[in-house]
Structure formats: C-alpha cells, structure tokens
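Hi F.,

I've been meaning to write this up properly since the lab meeting, where we talked about keeping a consistent format for the predictions we share between groups. The idea is simple: the sequence comes first, exactly as it goes in, then the structure tokens exactly as they come out, then a line or two of notes. No screenshots and no reformatting. I'm using this chain as the first example so we have something concrete to point to.
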Amino acid sequence: MGDPKAVAAQIRMKLPSLTPLEGKVASDILARKDIDEATPLREVAEKSGVSDAMVVKVAKKLGFAGFREFRQGLVDYNRSDTAALHSEISLQDSSSEIVQKVFRTAMQALEETFAILDLAAFERAVEYLHRAKQRDFYGLGGSAQIARDVAHKFLRIGVRASVFDDAHMMMMSAALLGPDDVVVAFSHSGTTAAVIEAVELARKNGARIIAVTNYAESPLAGLVDVVLCSTAQNAPLLGENATARIAQLNLLDALFVAIVQRDRATADQNLDRTMRAVQSKRRS
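Output, unedited:
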C-alpha cells in the first residue's frame, strides 16, 4: 500500500464497504499490536473467531493481494512512529498524561491524513473552487462548524461562500445551482441523509461537488466529483469525529492557501480591506 503511515487509515476508510462481520474482523486485526511476520493465518482467524478463508476475503476487500500482504502492511504500520502516537486515555491518567495523549492523537490524525492525501484530487478541488461562480457549503453539527471556519477564511480574501446547515436550506440552495457552481459537502461519516439528498439535487443541476469525509467508499463519496479524505483513530472519550475535524481543518487550510496562490495580488488586497474593516471593532 505504499507509505506505511497510510495503512491503518486506508483500512479504516474501507470499513463501510464491508459487511458487519467483515468489518468486525478487520477492526479486530487492526487493533492487534502483536502481529509480526511469523504470525500464521490460522492464529489470526481463531483470534477473530472466523475461518481462514474469511480473513483472506477481508484482506482482499481491503485492497491487499492476500493475507501475507495484509500482515506485512500491519507490521510496517505498527513499527512506524505514527502508530505509536495514539494511546487510550484512562481514569488513572494525570493532567500531564491527558494533555500528551490528546495532542498526540491529534498529531496522528494529521500524519495519517497527510499520508493518504490524493494530491490530484486536491488540485481539482482548488481549480473548481477558484473558478466557481457560487460556492455553497453543506454540513450539519460539527461538520457545519468546519464549513463556517472555511467560509470565514475565504471571505477575508474576497472569495464568497455560503454555509447551509439546515436540510431545507440545503435543498433550496441545491435547486438554484448550475454548471458554474460548486458544492463542498462536509460529512464525517459520508452517510448524512440531508447532505446526500442536497448533493444529489445539486449534481442533477450540473454543479461540481467536493466531499470532505472520513470514508472514501461512503454513499456521499460515490456521488461527487472530488473526495478529500481525513482520517482519525476512534477514541472512546474524544471520539473519531472530534479528532478527524482537526485533520479536516488543516486540510481545508491547505486548500485555502492554494486558492490564495492562484491570485495572490487580489487576495492580499482583499485581505487588507477586510482587516481594516474590522479594525474599529477592536479595543486598543
């Protein structure tokens, strides 16, 4: 699978495409830290309570040639510095340990998201957003907060974007879009019904669609022109969504900077104008 840092992320991204049993097997094996080059297929299968054939099937559905390549990918990942960043938080942890674990978990999400980033998709997203007549951002809950953060950055440089975090408003937006417009759909799971329905309508009307999600094979990802994936390991207290948002914010920051570079002179001019406009609101 190339970069060892990307192995766990690429496995997690494919989990929605597996059956519940296959997903359990994949998650069980991914969570193990004791697998090495000599670990036999039979032992792995027995630990997961399935047949040898099921483990091989899961390995192939995850994109590996077979069990041996799957095993080697996990070994390489577990030996990487990135894998060592994550530690579960326990009730016995001191404040120092809590801070360290939270920060290191965020660092792992950034490292893994960078490792799986599709630069060709990233560049297409930059081109679509730069050339768009109208840019509409869709997201609910935590995803809406990311959409607002990005829209705020864009406004500072004179790139107009609208944020819709209500199912009805998203559908109204989608109904008015056309081939010169772009939707950025934010959904960690890629299964948010309100977002998917609005994306379907926007796509029907000819708009380009960019998805920001954690799962490359989710229902949302299957509908769009460009998929930008974040990734994060699930943690009982922090949750997968919260950690992934940190990676998504950084991913969108990179997108913002790339768009600025398309017309740096205009961006700098608009940034100066918007900064001066709010200067009077600050107390000296």
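Notes:
The chain has twelve helices and five strands.
The mean pLDDT is 90.

If this format works for you, I'll send the rest the same way.

G.
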